[in-house]
Amino acid sequence: xxxxxxxxGGGSGLIGxxxxxxxxxxxxxxxxxxxxxxxPEKNIFNWNIDTGYIDPQAFDGVDCVINIAGSSIIGGxxxxxxxxxxxxxxxxxxxxxxxTINENTISIKHFIQASAMGYYGNCNDKIITEDSPQGNDFMxxxxxxxxxxxxxxxxxxxxxxxxxxxYMSARGGVYAILARLAKFHILSGFGHGQMWxxxxxxxxxxxxxxxxxxxxxxxxxxxxxxxQPFQMKDLIRVIAAKNRSKAWLPNIPxxxxxxxxxxxxxxxxxxxxxxxxxxxxxxxxxFSSLNEAIQQV
Length: 297
Fold this sequence. Notes:
Elements: E1 5-9, H1 14-26, E2 29-34, E3 44-48, E4 53-54, E5 64-67, H2 80-103, E6 110-116, E7 127-128, H3 138-148, E8 158-164, E9 166-168, H4 173-183, E10 196-197, E11 199-201, H5 202-214, E12 221-224, E13 230-231, H6 232-242, H7 254-261, H8 266-269, E14 273-274, H9 277-281, H10 290-295
Parallel strand pairs: 1-2, 1-5, 2-3, 5-6, 6-8, 7-14, 8-12, 9-11
Antiparallel strand pairs: 3-4, 10-13
């Protein structure tokens, strides 16, 4: 079987690293774009968003481009400077890839663009699907601009957009942080704990990418989330139980989070009851519940 060559923008981050390992294990030839100097022997190719440069060798024989580049949304207040960085790292990186592909008539088969469940904005208890409207808060605008940056892609190239939830991996991110706190018996929740969220399990996400590349799933926009959304209080409970601990500390009050994080507290307090009827219809979920997914992290 012919195994395709995949180029990943943002391949050195948590999701990119997990994806790179999974695709390589399946036999794909995987390359990553990096701010480091090109090293073709290690499948690393330089790109510079500020100067608009990508090493041309990066695209030689590439079948699919996966763009998950973007500065971490978590990490302090969203100052005006930080908002510019969050936007630039997503929008300009996407524009650079699209422009490079278009201007050089690079004939890839598929362009897979990352986004996030923040696209929908704070939804309280409303059930969200891929057809739900874009939110008008900063996260909604950021994700909307991120996705729109790929709109000028050559229409002859298949394109899929994957809106990612709380990414679950033992290698880092939300789960790793909460699990560590649970081991030290200092795990607690946020606000009233009834905010909804959706997880993106690293195994399900990597499998989804593989199936899209292989054409087993049609090119489309998907909420790349688990079978069922959950409330944050349940996430805290399940992670504590897995680590043989108990979340005995009181939740951190919303007012405290807003005081210290300002607008960025939305990452902990917003409610995203996100579902994916499209993936459910295709029967592409490996786990039936949050508990089952967490046990397999």
